[in-house]
Design goal:
- By secondary structure, this protein is of the alpha+beta class.
- It has three domains: about 110 residues, no CATH class; about 60 residues, no CATH class; about 140 residues, Coagulation Factor XIII, Chain A, domain 1.
- It is about 25% helix and about 30% strand.
- It has six helices and 16 strands.
- It has a five-stranded mixed β-sheet with strand order 9-16-14-11-12, with no helix packed on it.
- Helix 3 packs across helix 4.
């Protein structure tokens, strides 16, 4: 067995030693200084910190950090501390020293990978530069910051750390105020409901047919090779969007028809409709006209969602749509001319 003493620094693959706070993903030189100002200068000290207390302490000294970010720091520190919590790290003799130096950083890197970021979206972002120049032998420095989304910029002479954080805090507060309604609306996905499907075909044997939630079956017969249109009635629950005034949403509807005998799927196309949020409780969406070329039984599926807000897609199924050949033999008797004689 070969052994690695704990007092020997382990390289993380990027040239940083694992004793340094900056080997924690998300902690750079500036955030290292924040933590050191609170008496946290080692990974061991960070691993013992309480997330809520550390977040509050940072807030008290003027540094706004999210709870999830602090949790990520502490979790990574605890993982790294566990690697050095024993007197030695034991490695099987099947690994050479060279192999060990490659395999250990990989194992550590996999454990300290960033926390899952699914469903997170950028609210605002900043670009910060510290610039320097020399004029007549005199060196000058300045701090430059830009809020990416708004394009707003500001600069200060020297390394203006305090002014920098204050400016970012003000811009972030403005952004939160502007997007408060949207954030509240998106906190929980909005359920889109398709309440009815209306099918219209011009022809001798057909009139507009409506299928709804209580009765999704369609008794009428449609004619092959004759254009028909599918109209959806969609909506959301009243009050689903917080503060709907001056807001709009975009419904996205689409559908398909599946021939039950052959399995062939016909795309019914898609349509986008933008409406004011206060009018979104009920909306009619017309899909593009289509033609079903082959006679037989079809299953019709319709879907609707909201594009600019988190939503749960609405779904409606018409189990069977009967389509017959476009021949006189298939016309209903009620549609044929009637002659009377004595």
């Amino acid at each position: 067995m070969s052994e690695l003493p704990i007092n020997q620094a382990v390289d993380n693959g990027n040239g940083k030693q694992l004793q340094e706070l900056t080997c924690i993903r998300g902690i750079g030189a500036t955030k290292k200084q924040w933590l050191e100002s609170l008496g946290i200068s080692t990974i061991h000290a960070l691993a013992q910190a309480t997330v809520a207390e550390l977040k509050e302490q940072l807030k008290e000294i003027g540094y706004a950090v999210s709870r999830s970010e602090v949790e990520g720091w502490v979790k990574q520190a605890q993982i790294l501390t566990n690697y050095s919590s024993h007197e030695t790290i034991v490695v099987e003799t099947s690994l050479s020293e060279a192999e060990f130096s490659q395999e250990l950083p990989k194992a550590i890197a996999s454990d300290v990978a960033p926390l899952p970021m699914a469903d997170w979206h950028t609210l605002t972002s900043f670009n910060i530069e510290v610039q320097t120049r020399e004029i007549d032998g005199v060196k000058e420095q300045r701090t430059l910051i830009q809020q990416i989304e708004s394009g707003t910029t500001e600069s200060w002479a020297g390394i203006a750390e305090e002014s920098l954080h204050q400016w970012m805090h003000e811009r972030l507060t403005e952004t939160l105020d502007q997007t408060a309604g949207t954030i509240a609306a998106a906190a929980e996905p909005i359920t889109v409901d398709i309440t009815a499907v209306r099918i219209v075909q011009s022809g001798l044997a057909n009139h507009p047919v409506v299928a709804d939630k209580s009765d999704p079956l369609v008794a009428s017969t449609f004619i092959a090779e004759e254009p028909l249109t599918v109209e959806l009635t969609v909506g959301i629950a009243a009050g689903a969007i917080a503060n709907p005034a001056n807001k709009s949403i975009t419904y996205h509807a689409k559908g398909q028809a599946r021939h039950l005998a052959t399995g062939t799927i016909i795309d019914l196309g898609e349509t986008r409709v933008t409406v004011q949020a206060q009018d979104a409780a009920k909306c009619t969406i017309l899909l593009p006209p289509i033609t079903l070329q082959k006679p037989g039984a079809y299953r019709l599926l319709a879907f609707a969602s909201i594009e600019n807000l988190a939503s749960i897609t609405g779904y409606f199924k018409v189990p069977m749509l009967q389509v017959q050949s476009n021949t006189p033999a298939n016309y209903q008797i009620d549609d044929l001319p009637i002659s009377c004689g004595i």
